[in-house]
Amino acid sequence: MGAARRPRAATGATMNILHVLSQYEVTGAETYAATLTAEQARDGHRVTVVSDTLHTPVDAEFLAMPIGKRDYPQRLRNVLALRRLIRSRAITLVHAHSRAASWVAYFATRFSRVPLVSSLHIMQSPHLSTRLFSVYGEQIVSVSRNVRAHALEQLGLPAQRMHLVRNGVDVGRLEAAPACAEARDRLGLPPAVPVIAMVGRLSGRRTAVAVGAVADVFPRVRAAVPGAILLVVGGMKMPDGFLALVEAVNGRLGDGAVRHVGHQRDVVPFVAAADVVIAAGRSAIEALSVGRPVVAAGEASYEGVVCEETADDVMRANFGDFARSEPPAPEAVAADLVALLRDPARREALSAWGRAFVRRIYDVRVTWGQLRDIYEAACAAKAPARRRLGLEPA
Prior knowledge:
The structure is a single chain. The protein is α/β, with parallel strands linked by helices. The protein has 15 helices and 13 strands. It is 45% helix and 15% strand. It is elongated, with a radius of gyration of 22 Å. The termini are far apart.
């Protein structure tokens, strides 16, 4: 059940917005774009999404295009196709969500009245071409302070065009999640057994996090909290040997100790059924909004229990995805989980704090308001360039 739809704000013109992504599996960029497009549509704007694939429902028209294919002949075809789309749909502004998407969108919007805004969802690797010229457009958005710092220091992007706008989530939908007992009943989980949910991709650099949690962390938790269950929610792309690992751990701990439920279009019921959630990035934010305590373990760092005392560092690192550190000792991670499982009063306090924290900082209505101002700045920045080129009167 989502938040109530509301009419478009009285101020500001209606826009035709084009979001460009390069996606082969569900990532934070995809779910971010889906949440943002829904809010933009609620605000009265027309939205189109272009990507290789899209697995998350969007409140917009989706057009498949191989944006992620980086060979130059295909990139040229993508540029021309995107330019035709921009003209035929009278697109007001293009918003790109990856380097590949920004590259194509940059050349598709040059010598036109259409501005480009790029969101940096990850720390992008430096390229020589980045130093020679920026493909990120008139305005650039980063989802965390570490991503912003990396873009300034390693990519050389201009500080005056960089903005910090955090991931936006649909607080209304997430806070309407079922109660724990109801969620467990729907999923066939025991009502009184301690449950940990690990949510997120299993591919790429997150493979090591998932493998460590199953092989090294959870057996320690199970020894301290008999009967505990680990739900592994994710796996659109499965790492080699992961299912065999789950089977081996279950052979030692008992069938059903680790339950791999695979990729889920809607993870909310699984999060709602858990006592504690292991997550990073958007998954961690969503779990907090559902009202579940979160242990932040990302592909770059372990941030531990998300609470008022750790919030500043956690936000800087985007819940563990963007802060280089040594891998945590399994004993330390297990100790954090065990302490939460044994302390229902602390879990309840963290639940209330987490929901308020997300409402204040990550509500998509807040982040869309910030982005709307950035869109306006991008449009204003493009107008002088057109006048310099003689394409519009002064």
